[in-house]
Amino acid sequence: MSADAAKALTFEFLSSLSAGYMMDITQNYFEFLALPVTYQLDLQSLSERSRELQKTLHPDRFAHLSDRERRLSVQYTAYLNEAVSTLKSPLTRAQYLLKMEGIDTFSETQVQLEPMFLMQQMELREGLESVREASDPDAELMALQATVDGEMKGLRSQFDGFYQQSTPTSLDAAAVCVRKMQFIDKLGREIEALEDQLFDE
Amino acid sequence: MALLQIAEPGQSPEPHQRKLAVGIDLGTTNSLVASVRSGEAATLPDEGGSHLLPSVVRYTDQGVVVGQAALAQASVDPFNTIMSVKRLMGRGAVDLKGLQGEAVYRFADTDGGMPYLQTVAGDKSPVEISAEILKTLKARARASLEGELEGAVITVPAYFDDAQRQATKDAAQLAGIKVLRLLNEPTAAAVAYGLDQGAEGVIAVYDLGGGTFDISVLRLNKGVFEVLSTGGDSALGGDDFDLALAQWFLQQLGGAEVIAGESRYLTEKARWTKERLTENETVVVDLDHAGQKVSLEVTRELFDGLVEPLVNKTVRACRRALRDAGVSTDEVLEVVMVGGSTRMPVVRARVEQFFERQPHIDIDPDRVVAVGAAIQADVLAGNKPDSEMLLLDVLPLSLGLETMGGLAEKVIHRNTSIPVARAQEFTTYQDGQTAMMVHVVQGERELVDDCRSLAQFVLRGIPPMAAGAAKIRVAFQVDADGLLSVSAKELSTGIESEIQVKPSYGLADNEIAEMLKASYSCAEGDMAARNLREQQVEADRLLHSLEQAISADGTQLLSEEELVHLQEQMVVLFSLRNGTDSALIEQGVKVLAQVSDFFAARRMDLSIKNALKGHSIDEIEGDS
After folding, report:
1. pLDDT tens by residue, B318-333
2. Whose CB among A200, B304, B469, B612 lies 3.0–4.6 Å from B465's, allowing a Cys bridge?
3. Does A120 lie at the interface with B, CB-CB under 8 angstroms?
4. Which of A7, A63, A79 sits opposite B427 (nearest CB)?
5. ipTM of the predicted assembly exceeds 0.90
6. What are the φ/ψ torsions at residue B456 (nearest 5 degrees)?
7. Dist. CA A189–CA A178, nearest whole Å
8. Do B157 and B128 form a contact (C-beta atoms < 8 A)?
9. Could you give the CA distance from residue B566 to residue B546 in angstroms, rounded to a whole number?
C-alpha cells in the first residue's frame, strides 16, 4: 500500500463483517463456545465444542441450499474459527481475558518493560543471530527453543496467578506478563523463520 | 411445487430425489471424474474403458481434441497441443520465465497480465484450455450417469494460491459446471482412505503429482477431517523428474541446442525411462538425435542421484508441515501416498525413512483423489443428510497487504482455519491525502516483490485530514474454498470499496461472460435461455430451503405476523419464477433473501444452542 504508517492490529472479530445480521456477537468467545471463563482452559473440551459447532455451522452443511445461507454460514464459521484460534494459543487467550477486564494489549504499539528483562531478551536475540555461524546450528536452535519454551511456561503460570487474584494491581501485573510473552512469542517465531531458512539452504 | 404446504416437522415435503454430483481431479498430467453409485465411489471410464483422461488439449482447424488423441500428436504439433496447462493456471506472463525448458508454447503479447497461448484456433488462456478438459469430463459423466449434473467437487493442490484457485473455479464456470467446493487434493485422498479404513488420529498425506507437490497433516476424529497444516510446492512434480533426466540425456548427446519438438521428445523419452525404472534396476533407452540412433543405459542409482535434490525438497516441506501442525513424527498414525509420482522407489524409500513407517499405497494413487472428491460431492449435493463427514481446511499461504517500503504486512497467517475473516487498520501518511492504494499479496516472504500479487485497488474519496487522522479498515474474508474477498472502508466517513479479488493474472467477470457467450453457437438465444434457467434454479433453491426452514422451525421462531409476511413474499417470488424475465427473478431472489435474513440468522443461533445443549456453563463450573 503506497499510503500507510501507523496501523493498529486488531485480532478481534469485527462486527461489521457480519453485515448487520442477527448473530449474537455480544457473547464473548467463552460463552459462544459454552466454556468456563478461565486461563486454565481444557483444550480437549475446546476442540470438542469447536467440532460440534463446525458440524452445524460450516458452509459445506449449506452447499445444496441458497447463496444466502452459505454466506451467513461463512460469517458464523469465521467467527467460530476466530474464537477457537484466540482461545487456543496461551498468549492470545491471556490477552483476550485481559481485554474482557478492560485492558487492551492487542493494539499496544509501545510498551515499557523492566531493564533486566530487556537485557535478557537482547542476549537471546544475539544468540539467535550467531546461530548461522555455529558449528551445529540445529543444536543451537534446539537449545534456544528450549529456553523460549521454559520462559513461556513460567510466564503463563505467573499470569494465571495474577489473573486469578483479580485486583486492579494484580491485573496490571498480569498485563506485564502478557507483554513479556509477546516478546518471547516473537522470538519463537524468529527461531522458526531461521529454521525455515536453514532448511531451504 | 406445493409452495405453502407445511409438512410435519421431520417429514420431507418432497419425495427423496437423488442428485447427480461428481468429483473431478483436474490433474497436471491426467484428469479423472468419479461418482458415488449405489453407495460405492468409483471413477468413470470413457467409451473405450479408460479412466484416465490425459490433460492434453489440441487445437486444430476442425475443432478441439482432448485426451489421448491429442497426446498422440504432442511431438508432431507442439504449438497447438497444450500439455500440463495446470502449471500455467493463475500465473502471470512474468512467472513463465521460471518454467523455461518446458514452456515450448508461443505466447501472445499481452500487457503483463494473464498469458495467452497462440494456436491455430486463436489465442487461448489457460482457463479456457482447462475448461476444455472439464467439458470432456462433464460429457463423460453425463453419458455414464444419464442425467444433468447438480454440481461437482473439483480438487486443487492444497498449496494453490488464491489466483490459482480462482482460475480453476473460472474454468469450471466456463465449462458450465457448478462448483460445490474446491477441495484440496490431500484432503480428498484422506477422505478416500479414512472412510475405507475407519482410522482415527493424525495422518500425513504426501502427494506428488505430475506438476505439484503437497504435504498435508490432518487429524481425523468422528467423521471430521481437520487439516492441521499444509505445505509444498505448486511447481514441483513428476515433470521435473523427467526434466532432470532429459537434461542428462542432452548432456550425453553433446548438449546441442534444444528445439521445441526435440525438448518434448526428450522429456517423453525421459518419462518412459523413469516409469520403467520403477520395476527395473537398469533401462536402455534408444534416442534419435541429429539423424543418429543413440542408446543410453540408465541405472536406478544414476536416476536417484539426478533427482535427489528434488526429493530432498519434498522432505524438507514434510518436516516444516509437521512443525506447523505441532506434531512429532511418532504421533503420525498413518502416511498416505498420492499421485502417480509416488510410484518411484526413491520417493517411497525417502518418505518411509522420514516418517519411520511404511506409507499406504493400497488405493491406486492415480484415482484416490477423484474418489475422495466424489464422496464429498455426494454429501454436499444433499444425498446423505445423516452424514457426519466434514472437511475443515486451512489457508495454505499467508495473506497480506503492501505497506511502506515495499514490505508485506501479514493479515492472515498460513495454516489458519478457513473460513476466516480479519481486518486491519491503516492510516494516511500525508496531510490531505484523499486516495489510497490497496495491494493484496500472498506468500511468506517479507518483501512484496517476493510474494504473489493478488490484486490492487484504490480507495478514493477519503476526506482531506491531517496525516494519520484517517482510519482505513481493510477487511479480508476467505471462504471454505480458500477464495478471498477484500473490502476497505474509511471509518469516519463510511466510504466503502469492495472487490472480489480478481487476481492480477486472472480473468475479469466480463471476460468470462464474453467467453461463455462465444462458446455458444447462436449466442443470444442460448445465453438468455441459460440465464433464465440459472435464475429459476436459484429461486427454487431459496423457496425450497425456506419451505423446509418454516416447516422445521417456523412455529418456534416466527410470530404469526412474520410468518404471514414471509409467505406473502414467497408467493411473489414464486409467480415471478414462472415468468420469463430473468432480471425480475434475480431481483425477486434478492428481495426474498433480504426479508428472510432474520429468520436464517435465528435458525443459525438456534442450531448453535442445540449443538451445545448439555454444556451449560453452570454445569461445567459445577464439575470443576
Report:
1. 998 998 898 999 999 8
2. B469
3. no
4. A7
5. no
6. -135, 140
7. 16
8. no
9. 9
